[in-house]
Design brief:
454 residues; mainly beta; 6 helices; chromatin regulator
Length: 454
């Protein structure tokens, strides 16, 4: 837990950030969580309206046992760009729930939810990791809504994926090109499944055909259909912390772990590493992401507080190859990295220091004299400082460029529970400088014509 001094510094930093919200953000919403959520993900967009869009949001409730752990499906209103008034986005209460987020459905989860991932081709299908060797698959639309009270029967997953020999808690990925699932665990293994045969029946079974709640009450996790692994991949020497599919291939993927290794795999050539980067960082690796626009680039985040970018073309089979870029702006372990879905050179990184940093690798080495952030680390162009404790997950919104959901696991010093935030930085921050200057000039001239006449 933070000392009193550390807590005061966080409060001061937060107060300063809050005063800048109307300037930095196009839209911002703060949602207080009674229980921490270790994961947050966007689901499908439901409808588009004039000023806002409705979209599903997946999160969880990690409880102390007095009520069950849950997987939560929420409906979220995403305000469109340049709609929210600056004075409105600045007015929020840290202790309150946001009017933009409404709980839609509760699934009583067997054990705590450590990680949530949606199937890109059908984001109503969700995978979760808990403190067990199994991966659980949920058809969230067909699952009945449950009342999370002590003693309530656990919801029954639609599928259970087996193949790990020990707990698999965090490393989880779903394939963008085919219905494949990838997982890593404490058994040092990377395991691959296909849910192809089951996905068609899951997606077509309407909620109306789902068993009634009373019937479902009698069923247990043990009654769920089980799927054995399609492949088991060995090569790590310690816990596998994260896995990621190649965006263009269901057969290629990568993984990182507590052995400091980044490993590339290809299911077509066997179950041994294709390339193993032995010392990707000089510490445990927590996260990895593969660039959806350029499959040569992979990001890794580590307990050494840094993010590194590797180019697959530079790596030899023996794993020798330095990162093409190192991004050093965090003061604590990096927990999550993700490329932006709409711009090839932009990515975000979240860390235990409470910051979510937005970087652009094209800005590295292009520092201009008199730039807005002269002392900032190369590539860093925006720092989201709205969380007061470790940022455990975030997700770019593929349906709404530059919009992010992020969640922090708040310790006692910040009131416990968690904080979920929906936000979009002001477009004046990322648009080309000439364009922004031209717009501000136009605005200045407009003000001059509107001003009082002499």
């Amino acid at each position: 837990m933070r000392g009193r001094q550390g807590s005061a510094a966080v409060d001061e930093r937060y107060t300063q950030w809050k005063s800048l919200v109307p300037v930095l953000y196009d839209w911002f919403a703060n949602h207080n969580l009674v229980w921490p959520s270790l994961s947050c993900r966007w689901g499908p967009q439901l409808e588009q309206a004039t000023y806002k869009n409705r979209q599903r949001l997946y999160l969880s409730e990690q409880t102390d046992g007095s009520v069950p752990n849950t997987l939560v499906v929420a409906n979220c209103e995403v305000v469109k760009p340049r709609v929210a008034a600056a004075e409105h986005i600045a007015e929020f209460n840290e202790e309150a729930r946001s009017p933009f987020i409404k709980k839609f459905k509760t699934i009583i989860h067997p054990g705590e939810v450590n990680r949530i991932r949606e199937l890109p081709q059908n984001s109503k299908i969700v995978a979760t990791h808990t403190d067990s060797p199994d991966v659980l698959i949920w058809d969230v639309e067909a699952q009945p809504n449950r009342h999370a009270v002590l003693g309530a029967t656990e919801s029954r997953p639609d599928l259970v994926l087996t193949g790990h020999q020990e707990n698999a808690e965090f490393a989880l990925s779903m394939c963008p090109t085919e219905p494949f699932v990838l997982s890593g665990g404490k058994d040092k293994l990377v395991v691959l499944w296909s849910i192809q045969d089951h996905i068609s029946t899951l997606a077509s079974s309407d909620a109306a055909d789902a068993p009634k709640e009373e019937e479902k009450e009698k069923e247990k996790v043990s009654d769920s259909p089980k799927i054995a692994a399609r492949g088991v991949f060995e090569g790590h020497d310690d816990t596998v912390e994260d896995v990621q599919f190649c965006p263009s291939s269901a057969q290629e993927f990568c993984s990182v772990g507590d052995d400091s290794c980044l490993i590339f795999w290809d299911a077509r050539v066997g179950t041994s590493p294709v390339v193993k980067v032995e010392k990707a960082h000089n510490a445990d690796l927590h996260c990895v992401d593969w660039n959806p626009h350029d499959v040569n680039y992979v990001l890794t985040g580590s307990a050494d507080n840094s993010v590194r970018m590797f180019d697959r073309r530079n790596l030899t089979n023996s794993g020798v190859g330095a990162p093409v870029n190192k991004f050093e702006g965090h003061k604590s372990a990096v927990l999550c990295v993700q490329w932006a879905p709409h711009k090839a050179s932009v990515f975000g990184s979240a860390a235990e220091d409470g910051f979510l940093n937005i970087w652009d690798y094209e800005k590295v080495g292009k520092k201009k004299e008199g730039s807005r952030m002269p002392n900032s680390p190369p590539g860093l162009f925006f720092q989201h400082a709205g969380h007061r404790d470790k940022v455990v997950d975030f997700h770019w919104n593929a349906s709404d460029p530059w919009t992010i959901v992020s969640v922090s696991d708040d310790g006692e010093s910040t009131g416990g529970g968690g904080t979920l935030q929906l936000w979009r930085m002001s477009d004046l921050i990322y648009r080309p400088e000439e364009e922004v200057i031209a717009e501000l000039e136009k605005f200045k001239n407009h003000l001059a014509t509107c001003g009082p006449k002499p």
